[in-house]
Specification:
19 strands, D-Amino Acid Oxidase, Chain A, domain 2, alpha/beta, binds flavin-adenine dinucleotide, 2 domains, about 375 residues, eight-stranded mixed beta sheet, six-stranded mixed beta sheet
Length: about 375
């Protein structure tokens, strides 16, 4: 039997790991269409490249646990030349009185799924993390395993090399249209040619909403700008976890300094098409004061640089959208991760490949993240987003 023709739109971490996973399923006709092989504006290259198991939705915990195993065994997965420098430093997520009950319920769910997370009350937090101001802290949770950070660029390059080595074809072109027969997508148009397709995977990251609109389908994923600030401070970073503050500010060690960020206010968070200018006011006005209130050593710091990338923000419920479109059943979505797509790329890729090869999920049941929930207006909000 001939292999189905599979066209993947976007060769970032989602598209490249999906191509690799499809080839590993024995499917041999896999084409990745990527408009910019330098990846300079891709979310993957601009991300904070961290992984946590602490999520509010069980399927996200499962995807993270799978992702962590993949990252730890990356050479077996992607080849001996895969170098990603995984630091298993953990996330430390702080909570106050108001959020503590919900946090304890989430903790029980996460542990039930196999996550290894320590929890502390206010005094315990102060004793374990003496560099923190803890007066308002009622709970802190720290991932002892399967959480940390890595080199997303190294992961992307290894995924792309592995996909090509296992038979995937990469084409440099921009997808600007489709052909359909009403019930299925029959081809993908790019660079003046139409590539016939039995399956199409939308892995276009922050552009996945725009790509979907080419079919006349509204899809609530939009590019939203997020700035990462790199700074140095009189604080020893070695051994420090990734910190998520009650305010929404985050920071973690990076080299001999730190990186950090915070979401802008909703009123200052428009679609960011083409805008990669770091939001410096966010640092001065919000991030620095909030971090210095939580980590007093940060009252003195030196900003080294800042960069901005785009989240592929799912405005519907801040969760990924994985699986087939309810009406165009051979159009498979793998996008909308709203800030956690690198860590969930290995499990997503595996699931998409299983769906296409076997018409069923075999490793993780990804149906809760399906497109159907959008069609049925049944949001599944992810509470732990930063
Ligand atoms: C500042 C920041 C921090 C983040 N931190 C983390 C983190 O700590 N952990 C984590 O897991 N995630 C994080 N994320 C999110 C993560 O980066 C994304 O979820 C993930 O990279 C999405 O991967 P992707 O392959 O879908 O998208 P991308 O890497 O953007 O790849 C999509 C590709 O599609 C191509 N493309 C788009 N449109 C077309 C078209 N029409 N034709 C052809 N090609 C096209 C693009 O050129 C691009 O290369 C962060 C994101 C940002 C911006």
């Amino acid at each position: 039997m001939t292999s189905p023709r599979i066209v993947i739109i976007g060769g970032g971490i989602i598209g490249s790991l999906t191509a690799r996973a499809l080839c590993r399923e024995g499917l041999t006709d896999v084409t990745v269409i990527e408009r910019d092989p330098t990846y300079q504006f891709s979310s993957t290259a601009l991300s904070a490249a961290s992984i946590r198991t602490q999520f509010g939705c069980p399927v996200n915990v499962e995807l993270s646990l799978y992702g962590a195993q993949f990252l730890k065994g990356v050479k077996a997965e992607l080849g001996e030349d895969a170098e990603i420098g995984f630091v298993e430093g953990g996330y430390l997520i702080l909570g106050d009185e108001a959020t503590a009950p919900a946090r304890r319920a989430a903790l029980a769910m996460q542990r039930g799924l196999g996550a290894d997370i320590a929890d502390y009350d206010s005094d315990g937090t102060a004793a374990a993390f003496p560099w923190l101001a803890t007066d308002d802290i009622a709970i802190a949770t720290h991932g002892r395993a399967n959480e940390g950070w890595f080199d997303a660029w190294g992961l992307l390059q290894a995924a792309r090399r592995a996909a090509i080595a296992s038979g995937a074809r990469y084409l440099q072109a921009e997808v600007d249209g489709f052909t359909t027969d009403g019930a299925r997508v029959t081809g993908v148009r790019a660079g003046g040619s139409v590539y016939p397709a039995d399956w199409v995977v939308n892995a276009a990251g922050p552009a996945s909403g725009a790509v979907t609109r080419l079919l006349g389908i509204d899809f609530p994923v939009r590019p939203r700008k997020r700035t990462v600030f790199h700074f140095k401070a009189p604080l020893e970073g070695a051994g420090m976890p990734m910190l998520f503050d009650t305010s929404g500010a985050w920071m973690r060690p990076e080299g001999d300094g730190f990186i950090g960020g915070i979401q802008p206010d909703e009123a200052n968070d428009p679609d960011a098409n083409g805008d990669f200018e770091p939001d410096h006011a966010l640092f001065e006005d919000r991030l620095w004061p909030l971090l210095a209130a939580r980590v007093p050593a940060l009252e003195q710091l030196r900003l080294v640089r800042a960069w901005a990338g785009h989240y592929e923000m799912c405005l519907f419920d801040h969760n990924g959208v994985i699986g087939p479109h309810p009406e165009l059943a051979n159009l498979v979505f793998a996008t909308g991760f709203s800030g956690h797509g690198v860590m969930h790329a290995p499990g997503t890729a595996r699931g998409v490949a299983e769906w296409i090869a076997h018409a069923a999920y075999r490793t993780i049941d990804l149906t809760p993240l399906g497109f159907d929930r959008i069609a049925a207006n049944r949001p599944m909000p992810e509470s732990a987003i930063y």
